From TrEMBL:
Residues 101-267 form the Penicillin-binding protein dimerisation domain. One of its GO terms (cellular component) is plasma membrane. It comes from Candidatus Wildermuthbacteria bacterium RIFCSPLOWO2_01_FULL_48_35. The chain crosses the membrane at residues 54-72. This is Penicillin-binding protein 2. Gene3D superfamilies: DD-peptidase/beta-lactamase superfamily, Penicillin-binding protein 2a (Domain 2).
Amino acid sequence: MFGFPRREPYNGKKVQPPSAEIEFQDILLDSLEQKRARDSGGNTRRLETPIPRAAFLAFEAFFLVLLGILLARSLQLQIIDGLTYVKLAEQNVLAGALLVPERGVIYDRDMTQLVFNKPSFDLIVDKRRLADDYQEKTKEIRDVASILEVNPEALRDSILRGKFAVEAVADNLDHEKILAFEEKKNQLPGFFVAPNTVRDYIEGPFFASIVGYTGKINEEEIKRLANYALQDSIGRAGLEKSYENILRGEAGLGALEKDARGNVIGQSILRHSVLGGGLVLWLDAGLQKKLTESMQRVLAAVGAKKGAAIAIDPRSGGVLAEVSIPSFDNNIFSRGISGQEMEKLQNNSLNPLFSRPVSGLYPTGSTIKPFISAAGLQEGVISEKTRIYAPSEVCLKNVYSGAKECYEDWTYHGWTDVKRAIAESINPFFYIVGGGYKKNEFSDPSLPDNFEGLGAPRIKKYLELFGWGQKTGIDIPGEAEGRVPDAEWKKNYFSDSPTDQVWRIGDTYNLSIGQGYLLATPLQVANAFAAIANGGTLYQPQFAQKIVDDKRNIRQEFASKTIREGFIDAENLEIVREGMRDAVRYGSSAMLSDLPVAAAAKTGTAQISAQSDLYYNWVSVFAPYENPEIVITIVIENVKGLQAAALPVADETLGWYFGGRL
């Protein structure tokens, strides 16, 4: 650093100048040594000065004492008071809290929004911040119960029994309660108000059976599902349930910092939540409302209270409308349904929560006849030109008792072919095509001597090809499977009654006209008619058309799914279609002849029981006839007598649909 030449003698000796630099500290040490030598009067050859032993021992003792203090303090903080400080840390920083994502909304096919999210506020308890003293804790809970206007003991038990440190106490707080908790937040450090959203179902009763509803997630679901918090809602019914993974979005992660008094002093977002996808349906909201209103009017006119309807686009399988009467307001679930309200719904004898189009099982009556015709044509049992004599009743000789056993029709028809049989719904034609006939001593002379019909196994085969007796796979929960009976089914079903196990010719006759043990959903019936309308393709019906983001950009489209096709020859289906067209021209559905477009239809009535005068009243229609774009199936329950009920609904609805929607 610095260099200085040294010439003077040091202690009587000559010192040679260094060949290199001499450091400044060397000069300083030399001067100190010279001073010490002069003071002591002696000579020294060492530059170092040793530290006195006493000073070293004192320093060592001081260091050991300081180290002991530090170790003792560390022991106290980490071991003795560790749990206390962990609790304080948890109370002051609530880290890793899930941020509930905003749920995706639902649109009809024209992007009319059917579901909205509206702001809501929930009361949350953080049990780690409740008073340790039981009496003080009980007082806090009593204060909260007073604000919520609930039973304090019930609230206390609910909070203390909960399995989680942080839990939702109350949903959807009103403005007055929010203000009350804000005023008392310093006295209630274990409780805080958290923002949330709830569903707002526009015109809820019109769409409730389709859209469904959400409900608060429960403890078991929290354990089973990832990234849900107790403040979350989850789809409970309808499309809200089917498309939970899409509508839900992705939860975010946040941290909330509080001071010792429970005041929020900071917050941060560790991971942003992702908005749920928007669901666009095939549904036509206008058609849905028109069909519902028309059904309600007709039900009132005929004295009925229950019914179902479904409309399908036969070109894709998309569901255009689905009506279940009576319905319910799904907004009561968003608001937080009370136990009393839920009990009232569940005990309602009309069962408004039951989705009749998808879950309801009914005997179909004569709506089965086009499918029996298709099967007979395909199997060569009949042709377009086959003519069968149709008296007012077909009588058999009971093989066991020898007694006369007759199957009646509503009138005499005479000689008929398949088209007329469909158009006028002629039972004897379908008895014979379905079950066959052997002349006996009770026979009308014009009946065939020996006609081999389809028989129950082949009827079952073709009904299943059209999708009966099995779920369609529609994208909504609760679909029923239905039932196409045969000898094996009857044997198993009546296992406790051997005399009822035998499949008889009468069972096949009943099956051929949609009576007896046959059960189908309106959805299955409509979807089967859609296959007739489109020339032989059975689609999987679906509500969802596509998923969009919050700017309505398409994220995903759902392609139509074909269940099967080509199982009936096109020329045979065309014969059936012509028979249904004749039903509108001059037959059982002539009421539809004045529609703005040509339509084809098949009506049906199924008696509820032999002892009653009540019927299930059906109609299935497709239109326009040449290029069908809609199939509607309607069933009205408990219609007294053989009056028209479903048919006027179809007439009014399709008149509106094709007549400018006015």
